[in-house]
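Predict the structure of General secretion pathway protein F/type IV pilus assembly protein PilC.
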Amino acid sequence: MSRRHLTLDLRSRAGLFAHLGAMERAGVPIDRALASLDLGAHHEAAVKRLRQMVGGGRDLATSGQLSGVFTPLESGLVRAAQEAGALAHIYEQLAQRYDEQARYAAELKSRLLLPAGVLLLALAVKPLPALVGGSLSGAGYLAAVLMPILWLSALLFGARALWRRWQQRRTDQPGPLDDLLLALPVLGSLQRRADVRNFCDSLGLLLEAGMPVLDALPRACSAVSGARLRRDFANLAPRVAAGQSLVRAFDGLSFHGKAMLIGVLNTGEATGRPGEALLRFARLQAQQLAASQQMLASWAPRLFYLAVAGWMAYGLLTGGGFFPALPAELAGR
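Done. Here is the predicted structure for General secretion pathway protein F/type IV pilus assembly protein PilC.
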């Protein structure tokens, strides 16, 4: 059902969780907190379904996903926080993450305006000599300018649609879309690191709430969006059940930041506070992720600008811009 719902944008998600966090800190019941929630006209139908489901007795995590307000990942995080009694913590974490992502996205868009303008100018100028020389009609000129723009727009729209579809899906078996997204340079690495952070954050909350580790591990897996990494983390519970410590169980897996996690978790197990150690590691991962996202927002426009400049230079060098070709009658002499 949730596939037909509009996906909330980053600003709306930041506002949603900031509101829920403030209401939770103030001790306001969830039904009253939802009654004052306003995400705009586009999402009012989804918020209304959420209110109805919570009013009908469903828990917030399930209601959020069924109504289309939460993604499966958000639902898993909220469910873990419900069981740990730490809803305010996860609300505030999500609000901060989405606020940062929205800020980076806005910064990225503003920095891309100049190279995008240069690209549009290049597309408009490149076929002009052919138009002036009479070898290209007015309709042909428009097609030469508009077709690349349409292709680029379709590519961006398709990438955005794939990302939203991946956010809304939930399966235990990795698919081609999972492998494609994780294989993307930079973005794939960021997604894997975010999943590790979410898993450790959820597991730490559950352990700090006093939940036995064998009960907490499967619940923390629901906070992982990638099916491949979620399947790997699902192997932790059988290893712990077989008598391995949590450190040894993690040591048998391969993921980004494992060495740091093993070091932090060794200290945590030695002091009898593995949950606290996992939360500390999750905070460190969150800081590193924020720094990487800031770097991406700074460098992506520059790389795009260099690509556009390189394409323009190539067109000038190969299209006769610097070295015009001689007329045929002169070239034959």
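The radius of gyration is 26 Å.
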